[in-house]
Every structure is written in C-alpha cells, then in structure tokens.
Amino acid sequence: MILNISKIQALSFIALLTLPMHSALADRTWDDANSPDNFDSRYIKNFNHLPLTGEIDHSTKRGWADSYWPNVNGSIADRWQVKGSKFKEDHSPSYSELNNMSDSQIDLLSPAEKFDIARGKFSFPVATFIRKKTKDTDKDWRGICNGWTHSSLNYAEPNPIVYIDPTTKRKIPFGSGDIKGLLAYYHAKKDIYSGAKFIGRSCRAGSRLFFNLNGACTDVHPASFHIMMANELGIKHQGFAADRDPSVQVWNQPFVKFQSRIDNIKTSDLSKKATDGTRKEVTVTSTLTYVNELYDSNNPMDETAEHVAPSYTPVLGTQKLKTIEYQYVLELDYNDRIIGGEWISDLRPDLIWKQDFKLPGVSIDENKDSDDWSLLAKLVKLATENL
C-alpha cells in the first residue's frame, strides 16, 4: 500500500521521532509496573538458582483449551452445537414449550439458557441480558479470553454432567464446554471483586511507533518475565496468563511450559546502557508453550475452521498447543542476581497477570436474577468430582 503523507504529516512524524521517549524505553531495569514483586516478593532472582525448564503440574487437570466465546457469536448465549445458529435471532423456549422438550433438545440450548433453566428462571435473564449487550458486529477477536484463561489455570477440566433440578426433577445436560463457558463468563464479567496482580502494562495503541510515549507498549520487562516464568513454571509448576499480542488486540492464553537456553555470557565489553551494578550479560532464548483456542466443534483442533467452538467432552491430552520464542539479555550483578535486561526479539508478551478466583457461595444480588450465580459452584463440583 502506498501512503500519501502531506508536508504537515511528515513534519509531525519527524517531531514524534525526536521527542524524548518514556524512561522505560531507555532504562534497562524494571519500573514499578513491571516489578516481579507484583506477583511474589519471595521470588528467587539469582539466575543460577533458577531452572531453565518447567511446566504445569498435569495432575491438577488444569491448563485446558476452550473457546474464547467471541462476542460476534453471542458469547455464552451462542447455541454452539447448532450449525448456523444466530444468537440475535434465537428465542428461548416458553415454560410450556420447555416442558415438551426432550433432554436432547435442551442439550442444544446455549450455556446461558441451560444455566437459567437450572436456576428455575424461565424468563431467561442471563441469556436475554447477553443477547442485548453483545454485538454481532463486534471485532472478531473480542470475547472473554481473560475469563477462559484464568478459569483454565484455576479449575480442573470439567466433565459433562446432567444436572437434576431438586424441585422439578427436570434433567439439564451440560457439556464440558458449557461449564467452561459459564466459568469464563462469570470470571470475566461478574467476579469483579477478586484482586488481580499484573506485571507490565496493557498496550491499546494501534502502532507502537506513534503511541509508545507512555511506556505502555514497551511490554513486560524481560528480566521480570524471566524471573516470573522460572519461578511459576519451573519451581511452583503453575501456569500463568499472558496477553501474547503486543498491540491493540488482546489474546490472553494459558502458558503451561517453558524451556530456556543460554546463548551467550559476557563479562566484559558490557553495554553502555547496562543497569548500574551489572557485571555480567546473559543472552537467553526461551520457548514458551501456550494453550490455543478450540475451533470447529466437528473438529476442535482444526484452526482452519471459520469460528471457534467449544467441545462437549474434555480435551486435555488432545488439545492444540502452540509455542512462541522470545530472546532477551539479562543483566546480573556480582552475586548473579538478575537486576535488568533488554529485549532482542520483536515478539514479547504485552501483559502478564494472575488472579485467584473464587466461585460464588451466595447470590451477588438476590434482587437481580441475572446476577445470581450461586448455582455455578455446585455445577463445577459435580463436573470435577472423582477426577
């Protein structure tokens, strides 16, 4: 594409290039937003004491794939098992219609509709709310990947269940994907009181070149990243959540494995930009493994499908994993403690975060049917028993 840039635009472009950049671009140590202490002040920071490999504890049954429940499909109001379903045209069944539906017909409803039925809310407040608030013209990458990612890291993968209403004895089938979707939506939209911890800043600019002056698009500091990664995956064997896209789009993924190699160690001729106290520069390449989204329900591993879709059965062991490679320099002091660093690769995570989620024990607001999510804890317990 050829760009026609006016004289004024060209001068503005030059002016931007000559502006002093945010200190995060020139300083090779981390700032407060990028400190690894934001996650855990007890992290080991001595490079020689940190493992170069690590992965999530698979016995926990965590780190599972799911749809990111895109807005254009209706989020969890999507009847994802019905090919060609359009959530804006769907009408939830009346009470009398519901009484005449078979279990297999109920099974084809959306996770939101099933949840409403299981709660005895036949006006379908959750499904109706989502249909009204969700736009089928939204950007295709927008969804609840944050809710999926951290649900994946906090809960064992659910099995399909049949919930029996204790009052009416009505049977409501929930697939693994239905439970995952409910977890993702609850933690993305409802669990607003849980304290989240962050390393880095979220870049929302369309271009790093023009919108980097506040440091938000410098991404996670490589030294903090290495310390966090080696401690979480290498020592604790816990996964972590990261927005892998360094620009305006948000692609949160569960990261479940890493392997690092030392490319070079320098003890002389160090960078003039090195952090004060640096006595050694170590070049590292780290390969990270993350869980990818599920695609077409007929073949959940097929990324050539036109849309993402959940799976009715568990996918751990068969799900699609992807890798991404980061290269960076770490600065070590006299005691080999990591004190700074610099990215080499253009690829780097935009924001890393963690949150210890809690399921609702009681209704958030008993006066609002769409906010009563207390049944979710029971559904999750039933779906994860005897794993």
Offer a few descriptive terms.
387 residues; 2 domains; two-stranded antiparallel sheet; 10 strands
Describe the structure.
The protein folds into two domains: 23-58 and 196-355, no CATH class; 71-193 and 361-384, no CATH class. Helix content is 25%, strand content 18%. The chain is built from eleven helices and ten strands. The strands form two sheets. Strands 1, 4, 5, 6, 7, 8, 9 and 10 form an eight-stranded antiparallel sheet that branches. Strand 5 and strand 6 form a beta hairpin. Helix 5 packs antiparallel against helix 6 (125-133) and helix 7 (145-154) packs across helix 8 (176-190). The model is unreliable at 1-26, 205-216, 297-302 and 362-367 (pLDDT under 50).
What's a concise summary of this model?
This protein is an alpha+beta fold. The chain is built from eleven helices and ten strands.
| Gross morphology | elongated
CA(first)-CA(last) distance:
54 Å
Multimerization state? single chain
The percentage helix is: 10-25%
- Beta-strand portion reads 15-25%
Mean pLDDT: 83
Q: For the CA atoms, what is the radius of gyration?
A: 24 Å
Low-confidence stretches: 1-26, 205-216, 297-302, 362-367
What can be said about the biggest beta sheet?
8 strands, antiparallel
Strand/helix succession: HHEHHHHHEEHEHHEEEEEEH
Number of domains: 2
Topology, element by element:
Elements: H1 7-18, H2 23-26, E1 53-55, H3 95-99, H4 103-107, H5 111-118, H6 125-133, H7 145-154, E2 161-164, E3 171-174, H8 176-190, E4 196-200, H9 208-211, H10 222-235, E5 240-243, E6 252-266, E7 280-291, E8 321-332, E9 338-343, E10 351-355, H11 375-384
Antiparallel strand pairs: 1-6, 2-3, 4-10, 5-6, 5-10, 6-7, 7-8, 8-9
